[in-house]
Amino acid sequence: MINPEDNSSTPIIERKAASEPRNNWSSWFIGRPLSTADAPHQTISKMVGLAVFASDALSSNAYATQEIMAVLAVAGTMAFGYVFPIALAIVILLAVVSASYVQVIHAYPDGGGAYVVAQDNLGQVAGLVAASSLLTDYILTVSVSVSSGVAQIISAYPSAYEYRVWIGVAAVMFIMLINLRGVRESGAAISVPSMLFIMMMLLMIFAGLYQYLTGNLGIVLNPPEMSAHGAAALITPFLILHAFSSGTAALTGIEAISNGITAFKEPRSKNAAITLTWMAFILTILFLGISFLASRVGAVPSEVETVVSQMARTIFDGAGFFYFAVILFTTIILILAANTAFAGFPRLSALMAADGFLPRQLAYRGSRLVYSRGIVALAVISSLLIVAFQASVTRLIPLYAIGVFLSFTLAQFGMALRWRKVGNIKPGDSLVTSTRHTQLRYDPAWKMKMMLNGFGAICTAVVMMVFAVTKFKDGAYIVLALIPALIVVLWLIHRHYENLAKNFL
User: Fold this and answer.
1) What are the angstrom distances between the C-alpha of 71 and each of 65, 90, 238, 463?
2) Which residue ranges form the domains of the chain, and what is each CATH number?
3) What is the block-wise mean pLDDT of the chain (505 residues), using blocks of 10 residues?
4) Which of 349, 346, 309, 354 is nearest to 327 (CA)?
């Protein structure tokens, strides 16, 4: 086309306004509106993507080990010797799930994760089950991570305990504002503290391992009172499974990258897969390191002082500079871990809204090219949970991982069926699937990939059932009832839009 200003040939004509819009309260808080043409420039790199989408998984190191110990504590401190073996089993599961989600990323480069995989390969009902599980998980991610961050503050400043709920709600509102400013801005805001958190945790782990190997590792001085004091129980397989299910909180957030592939720069599938691999590797080192050292220093689970706080003041010989650095960046990353949900929830809800299972308004981008209505909805619902559960991580954790592992199972089972379809295609031929119009081509390694996804589906299904049984009385029954109710609501919304379409025609 021809640019009327200088008669030059150009594929895009850009016109500048004679005057800029006035500042208002919205522009002060979230910035000036962006042009729709700027959307391709709002994508993020692998490093920023690690901060945006992996902060939830990485931050779980701050409480996953403590949750294992909190369960084992009923059998006394001798049971803490099982912490590291349980952590090893969880890391093996992490490797299987991560490898499976790398395949999901390459198979569905437009994002959607478990929802799209289940809908494409297992049908609409399975897609709604996966979506309900993920939406529930994202809401709980915000509540748990922020509450855990507040617990770190209380460890250093016990006098703030009575204000924990309002500190948590204020933190959620702050993260909401960051995300309303756009993906690039939110990524830039949390990338530095995320890297500093990783560095400080690695420093603490390596310092602790050095002290352990040289025989200079001390024990916790003046340990807090254990959460499970006075209880007496035998170490049984049920207790071990209960502890294992609590520790699987370390896997939450793994699926977020597969939901937000479109946020990455091109080649987005490759960049998203590399970011997921980085995340799994770092998570493995941190989780195993903390789990190994926790029992060696004599840390105990407590609502008053976290295990990470006890480890830091033991390894760094008191509450000095390095101790406060660990607490500071752990607190920041735990609060910012909610950013993973703020990156995933609006994208998933927008995809579902486009399919007619959520209100259409959630599919529209705001002035900063983010799904602002989804961001606000997530902030409000998660804040209500923090108030209802008084910002207690222990009370929120039982609600947390069932939805995660249900979506894991559906995604991997769906991928296994997808590879079976691939195996039935002749070399050189292709097949277009019915729902997402993804093209299948013959892959000579389809059997190996099908076995990997099938094995992953079995593992995560077993963990989900273990979690449901062991955590049922602690509050897991709420999620088991909530997910079916949410599916009914999604289906009714879909019926409403279908009826509107029929009446319009």
Assistant:
1) 10, 16, 11, 16
2) 41-495 (1.20.1740.10)
3) 56 52 54 51 75 78 84 82 92 90 86 84 90 87 84 79 89 86 66 87 94 91 69 74 81 79 84 91 93 90 84 87 88 79 85 88 71 89 90 73 84 91 78 62 86 89 83 75 89 89 74
4) 309
